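Attaching the record inline, Q. Sequence:
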Amino acid sequence: MSTHKLPVGIIGAGRIGKVHAETLAFRLPESEIVAITDINQEAARGLAARCGIPTIAESSDAIFADRRIEAVLICSSTNTHADLIVAAARAGKHIFCEKPIAHSLEDIDRALAAIHAAGVQLQIGFKPPL
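Structure, as predicted:
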């Protein structure tokens, strides 16, 4: 059994970012949240305090540049997803992104092309209706 914890960074500390941060912090001991960022730094600080996240990054670029982080969770607004997927892929990070990837097929194709070019994994968060 491996003792390696997956080091992750979270982009977005709003409603869905809170759900995912709490899940990782309190239910998935195989993960370690290294850093979080949000355009609302106060929201990021509050969630970091609640979940024991040691670093509040100034931006998503800081998350992507952090060599400790192997995977990112994109929990920001939909209009940012495609660009963040492309940037994360270029940084060599595996990606979990909330649905949808984007509102246009062009942006979706651009994000998927970046994933394939980088050879990283992408998972889209989707919970089907009950």
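Helices lie at 15-27, 41-51, 60-65, 78-90, 105-118. The mean pLDDT is 95.

More tomorrow.
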